[in-house]
Structures are given as structure tokens and as C-alpha cells.
Amino acid sequence: MKSFHKTLKGALLASTVMVLPAAAFAQESEDTAGPQDDIEEVVVQGQYIPDEKRATSEISNVLDATELARTGDSDIAVALQRVTGLSLVGEKYVYVRGLGERYSSVLLNGSVLPGTDPTRRVVPLDIFPTALLEEALVQKTYSPEFPAEFGGGVINLRTKAVPDEGFFRFGLGGAYNTVSTDDGLSYDGPDSEAFGFAGGRRNIPDEVLRDITLESLTPDELEAAGEAVAAPAQWSIDGEPNLPDFNFELAAGDNFTIGDTKVGFVTAVTYTNQYTNKFGVRRNFALVGDGQLVPNENFSPDACQGVEGIDPADCGLRSTEQDISLNGVVSLGIELDPNNVLKLTSTILRQSTKEATIEQGDFAFDPGTVRTRSRTDWVERQVWANQVEGAHTFALFGDSDTFFDTQLDWRFNYSRTDRDAPLRRETVYEYEDFDQIFRFDPSPQSGRTTWGALDDEQYEVGFNLTQPMSVGTTPVDIKAGFTYFDKQRSSGFVRYIFDFPGGDTNALRERVPETIFGPVNIDPNGIVLEEQFDPSDAFDASLENWQGYLAADIQVTPKLRAALGARYEDSEQVADTVNRLTDEPIVVIQNNSQWLPAATLTYEFTDNVQLRAGYSKTLSRPDLRELTSAPFLDNELDQLRRGNPFLEITEIDNFDARFEWYFGIGESATIGAFYKDFTNPIEETFSFQGEQPFLTYQNALGAEVYGIEAEIVKNLDFQDWFGWKWLGGRDFYVNANGSWIDSEVSLPDPNDVPIDVRNTNLVRPLQGQSDLLANFQFGFEDFESGEQAAIILNYTSDRIFLVGIQGRPDVIEEPPIMLNFVYRRNFETWGRPLQVSFRAENLLDDDFRLLQGDQLFQQYDIGVTLSIGLNYTF
């Protein structure tokens, strides 16, 4: 079989797409495979099936550059929610087939992508601009060339390839949101924040950056340390107008020839600055004796009703997030000859979030007293991924009639993830009725200052070898591969509080924090700095995994294709932390060696109709942080999370089937079903440290997930059907898909677990799993004028947001129904195309809502977003 590396672009893509199946090669090798009559039937089967769907023997969906342009989504997280069976959580996390975050894997150019958030298993995909991506593959059935951690599916993101011709593109845009482009909250910060950099003033002061405790300091050193921690003016939150959202893109690429070597490159930089207001209510509930839910923490106007001197409208949740993204990619391709290609890709993704939050209302620890809690936060997340790839084709067996050209691709990947949370401030002011004044609360949670950091380093090296051959007249691809993966993680948090002196401090506590913690008040006889470290605040962890697979792709008959194989993984996870109660070290070592089989059969009824069915066994390991007791703060929930050193690996048996009908160019209809059986699934639950609740994890007894998926893509030829010539060259289409999914998880008997972690519902759906997912898209394209328009509807049914414990019901999320409109058109300007785009999001003005029983747990308006963009190509 001859090489399919015919062009520079095709060659560079070859290392990141799956190897073409044996049937596709048969037509190119008719001179050596025997008489043409022997393989003619093989060649014609599936000729109307799109190449990508033929290239893989598995059930998959692909979002290519055309699809991404149709919807106009700025980041891949929003774009992926339109794929059948995928749902979007928190505007950044993509769940495959409604399963939770631990069952969705993300690869970047075929290599494992590290996460950027220690509180999550799933990779936040909102940091990936669509402008940097060539396409995204979503594979829902497992094949052995992918890592064994596979639940709902795998998402493989592919960065831009080398262009066919040189270009330079500049784009900019702006957006207005009816809720967020308004007055918001903010606090003082350096000018470098505009580009997503914290600045030196947020660094841990030298006075406390040392391997000694505060108790060992002299009084003068302790005073200097307190002044240094309090010094940065990042305490008070002010009302500030939020500017309209802004983004720009710069991209360039070219290719040229040096002797016999072809070289090409593409580089792109994107920048986004976006504001989000979350103004609403947030509550937590307790269960009283008669089974009634009553608020024990209530940030809403009704918490301040009847309190003299306070306007109830001032009570509730108010939060403003400013997200700054700065991303870049550089890709260099070298084609030594048509059969030997190298590709180097370096990608850096940065997203920084500046958050200012004020919660005013009733606190759980002292009901009936109105308090105001303020929090200022800055989080920087960065992924730096570097990959060297090679794709080679050679005649390993010479001029053989049985063995065709061998294909070898290899990769080396180094990735680094950094998450820094410098200088997080918290203050609490208590409203005192006797004189109707808010005064600073001197309790430990008020005035707390925190620094945190998490660093991941990943090394991955591997290769894939494909040997096409012909056994008689039967085309066969033998595939083998090896991967070595090593991940090292280090994480640490430090917390400081201020101890107030005895006596009457009312006058001082009426002041703003900058005055309270001024140098004149920090003194060994006044306000004193104290450490509030948890022994498990710092931990180290690692994962080493040796992997190999062997598979065969066989065209059994002209109509039947079989993909069979198995993957072997030998892994060791190590988590090293300290017991938070006894200060004793805790070292968790989890070894696992396992063979994981996979098989998929594809039967082609006719040239454009086929049926796939598959079985595979996969697993899901506990995340490194989930094996430690180290605490992490989930900013979205304002809840602590801790791991569980006794978690076991989850095993999954996967069964899939899908019927596919391709009835025209770009037209198709599919319907499929799946069933998954989980052994030792890991579920989220609550526990308590004293009276403070925190999120943790436990193995359930078992779980089942099953569902049906359907999709139709149809061109609408209105001009031919109705003679509507006035539509001109506009090609209309409709794209609709839907999924019905059901799940059931069985949790341990309450007699076997402590009372504070007893789940309310021992049998319930999996957390985060929605019963119904639906997408509808209607639009048109005019390729001559470059005009596109689409109406896009996305529906996700209710799902469990937080599990209920101690008799309290589960917290249910009611995701908003998203109705969007996008329009773009090209105009000829100075002989070059200028693209103008318009987008309207959330036209139904739906909101974010969480319910616990019949009580409102959290709610805030999302608003309608109107955006416009300009893109000019030189």
C-alpha cells in the first residue's frame, strides 16, 4: 500500500489523524494486491461515507473548521456542546454522554492534556480558542491506541496545520451583555492585569517566605511579617463599570521550499477580556425535625427583611469575574520527502480570572445576625504544551505482494501546567443592631490571606506502527504502539490570619481593612499575624504509566470490517501528604496492571449505509489530588474539597451500536444506543471538619448508564423545491441531534459509613448526568459571497449538581435553554476579504438556577450577549 502523504498539508495532518483503514488503501494498491476484480467490491463500499468517519472504525463525531465557522463560537467548550451526546457544565467543562467530569478525557494532538484546576478532574476547555484549532474529534467507542482512562469518550483537539499558501490575518471584536456590561465589582491591581499577569505585589513577602514558623521570629520580625502580609492594597471592593468585552486575533502562515525540502509554519495569538456579573442569591439548607428545609446560610434579600437600617435589596450574592485570556500557538512542518514528515508544535494557553465577591445576609454559624463577607481573588492558569512528531512511510518488506508500505508515527510531548492563586483575601463585617454599624469581625475566617500554587509536569513518548497487508484477497492492517507517560505534581497552600487584641476595638473595627491593617495597628501588642496551616496543605504526587497495544483492522468481507485489539497498561500512582490531625505522613501507592480488550464490527449494507457495534473494557483512576487529604477551595461553590486515600480504580464495560445513513454530500442520519457498567465508580459526597462541610469522594457499589442518540444533517434545496430563485446561491441546511440517557448508581449502606457522609439517596442518577440533550441548528451558507447565518438552540435537562446528605435532597441544576443567532459575511476590501460577523446569545434571557427540593439554592441572571467582529486577511 502506497503512502498517502501526497502533499505537505496532508502529510502534516497524518500524524494527528487515525490511519486510513485497509479498505481505503486497497484502491491505491491494486497493482500489487492481485486482480482488480478481487478487490473491486471492497473499494466501492462506503464510498459516500465521509473520510474521517471511514478513517476510524469507531463511533465518532468531528467538528472541523467549517463547522466551527458555522456556529461562530469563540472557544471549543461552547462549540462541543452541539455535538450529539455532549453537554456543557459551568460554561467550560464538557461531559461526554452526560457522564461526570472524571469520565471525559481530553487529548491535544494525540497527547494527554493536563488539567489546570486542582478542584476538577475535567480539563476546562474554555481556554481553547477555536481560532487556534483545526478540528476536534469526539470518539465515543474505545480503541486501543487511546489511553485506557476512557468513560464517556475522548476529545482529541488538533491545532492548526500548515497552510497551503501564505496569509496574514487580523481580527478584533467586542461584545455587550445586558447583565455584565454594567456596574460591577472590582479592586485595585497593577496595570499588568490587563494582560493576565498578577504583578509582583501579589507575591508572598520575603518576610514569610522561609522554612521557619512565625513562632520562631523575634517581635520585630513578626511585626514586619504582619505588615508585609497586610501591605498590598487588595482588601476593599468598589463598584466599577464593566467595559464591553473585547478580543483580537493575529495569525500568519506560509510555506516554502529549501532544495527538496518543503517547510511551512503557522502562528497565531489571541486575546480576550470578558466580564461576568453574578448578581443573585445563594443559600444552604438544614433539615428540621418535620422534614422541612430551612436556610442555615442565606444570602438573599429575605435574609435582611425587617432589619432596621439595612435595605433588603443590598443583601444577596454579588460577584464580578474578569477573565483575561492570552493564547498562542506555533507550528512548524518539515517535509523531507513525501514519505518523511516532521512537525513541531508549541502551544501556550493562559487564562487569568480576577474575582470580587460580596455576600451579605445570614451566616450558618450565627443565624439572625447580618454579616457581609467580601472576597478578592486572582487565579492564573497556564498550559504550555510542546510536541515533536514524525510520520514516515517505508517499504519494510521490500517489493512484496503481501506486505505494503509500513507507516510509523512517533511523538514526544512535554507539557507543563501552572495554577497560581496569589493573595486571596477574605473579610467579614458584622452588623451590630445597637448602633446600626457594620464592624469588622475578628474571627479567624475574617482577614484571612491565602497563597496557593499547583504545578504539573508531564512527559510522554510513544509511537504507532501500522503494517497494511493482504491475506489472500483480505486487506488487513496490523497496528501496534507503545507509550510511556510520567506526570509529577506539586501543590501547596499557605494561610495567614490576624489576631486582634483584647479590649474595646469597636472604633477601629468600623474602618476599612486598609486602615485596620495599617502598619500603625500591626504590633506585638496590637494586631498580630498568625499562621493557619493545615498539615496536608502541601502534597506531592506522581503517575507513571507504561502502555502498549496490539490491534488488527480486517476487511473480513467486502461488507464486514472488524477492528480487534487490546491495550496493556502498568501504572503506579503515588500521593505523599500529611495527616491533618496527627501530622503523620501519609503515602498512598496505587499499582495497577491490566489488559483492556476492544472490538468493533462495521457492516456496510450498501454504499452509504452501515452499522457499527462494539465492546471495550476501560478504567478511570482517581486523580492525584483525590488520593490526598489536601484541601482545595472550590470558588464556584465556596466549598472546601478533600481527597480520600482509600479510593479504588473504577472499571467500565462499554457496549455501543450505531446505524449510519449517508444519503448525500454532507447529509446523514444516525441513531445509536449504548450501555455502560461501572465497578467501583467514584462519586462526590460531603463530610465535615468540625461543623464545616467539605466535599470529598467515595467509591459506590456500582453504576449503570444507557441511552439512545440520534442525529440528522440535511441540506434544504428551497430553490429547487419551490423555485425560490430569489434565494440566490444560499445553501440552507438543518442539523439536529438529541440524546436520551438514563443512569443509576448504588451507594454503600448507611450502616457502613459515618453518619456525616450518609447520602440521602442510596440509589440515584450519576452526578452531572442529564436525561435529555438536544441541539437544533438551522442556517445557510453562500460560498460565493462568503455569507453565513444560523439559528442555534441548545437544551440540557436537569441534572444533579450536588449530592444530598443527612436527609437533605440533592441539589438540582436547571441548565438554561440557549438560543443563539450568528451571522457573517465577507466583503472585498482593497482586493482582500474582510469578514464581518454578528452574534446574539441567550436570546431567551434564561438564567442560572439551582434548586434543593422546592427551595432556591442559587440563582443569577446570565443576560443576553450581542457581539460584533471584524476579520481581515492579507
N- to C-terminal separation? Answer: 40 Å
Rounded mean pLDDT is: 84
Number of helices: 10
CATH superfamily: TonB-dependent receptor, beta-barrel domain
Regions with pLDDT < 50 over 5+ consecutive residues? Answer: 1-46
Major β-sheet annotation: 22 strands, antiparallel, barrel
Keywords: Cell outer membrane, Membrane, Receptor, Signal, TonB box
InterPro entries: Beta-barrel_TonB, Beta-barrel_TonB_sf, Plug_dom, Plug_dom_sf
Organism: Eilatimonas milleporae
Pfam family, one: Plug
Question: Could you describe the 3D structure shown?
Answer:
The relative contact order is 0.12. The protein has 874 residues and is mainly β. The longest helix has 12 residues, at 219-230. It has a 22-stranded antiparallel beta barrel. Strands 1-6-7-4-5 form a five-stranded mixed beta sheet. Strands 26-27-31-30 form a four-stranded mixed beta sheet, with no helix packed on it. It has one domain: TonB-dependent receptor, beta-barrel domain (Maltoporin, Chain A, Beta Barrel). It starts with 7 loop residues before the first helix and ends with a strand. β14 (316-337) and β15 (340-362) form a beta hairpin. It contains ten helices and 43 strands. The model is unreliable at 1-46 (pLDDT under 50).
